[in-house]
Amino acid sequence: MLTDKFLDVISHEGVVAIVSCADNEAHVVNTWNSYLHITDDERILLPAWSMRKTEKKVRKNNNVLLTVGSKEVEGKMGPGTGFLVKGTARFIPSGPEWDMMKEKYSFLTRVLEVTVESIQQTV
């Protein structure tokens, strides 16, 4: 499901927006492309340090949206492209994937896991 172009985008630095929604209120938090780790089964793991409001919303509604982009990758209309990722999320407080991510990102307190349901190139 994750395309070569998407993987190319996340190999370049850019901002990732993570949108969660519960109680009729959306919440957006940002991270960096370089923090995304793709598992063999194409889940996205992200180091979470704060993200407390995101976690509260995910407990009530685990549907999330991510936008990912880079001006370094050719898009549909010229330089730069981005993607909209729809998926379900959960926070991982411990375990093998937490350990692996903690080695890479010493600041994390939890790991945000996104199981991708769909991906769409937007530009």
Layout of helices and strands, plus pairs?
Blueprint lengths: L3 H7 L4 E8 L2 E8 L4 E2 L4 E6 L3 H9 L2 E12 L4 E14 L3 H9 L5 E12 L2
Antiparallel strand pairs: 1-2, 1-5, 3-4, 4-7, 5-6, 6-7
Instruction: Supply the number of helical segments.
Output: 3
Count of domain modules: 1
Return the CATH architecture: Roll
| Residues in β-strands, percent | over 45%
Mean of residue pLDDT values: 97
CATH superfamily: Electron Transport, Fmn-binding Protein, Chain A
**Rg on CA atoms, Å:** 14 Å
Q: What's the end-to-end separation, in Å?
A: 18 Å
Task: Tell me the structural class.
Answer: alpha+beta
Q: What is the general shape?
A: globular
Low-confidence stretches: none
Instruction: State the helical fraction.
Output: 10-25%
Which sequence of SSEs, written as H and E, runs from N to C? Answer: HEEEEHEEHE
CATH class: Mainly Beta
| CATH fold type | Pnp Oxidase, Chain A
Q: How many strand units?
A: 7
Major sheet strand order: 2-1-5-6-7-4-3
Major β-sheet profile: 7 strands, antiparallel
Model description:
The protein is 20% helix and 50% strand. A hairpin with a 4-residue loop joins strand 3 and strand 4. The protein is globular and about 40 Å long. It is built from 3 helices and 7 strands. The chain has 123 residues and is an alpha+beta fold.
Sum this structure up briefly.
This protein has 123 residues and is of the alpha+beta class. It is built from 3 helices and 7 strands. Strands 2-1-5-6-7-4-3 form a 7-stranded antiparallel beta sheet.
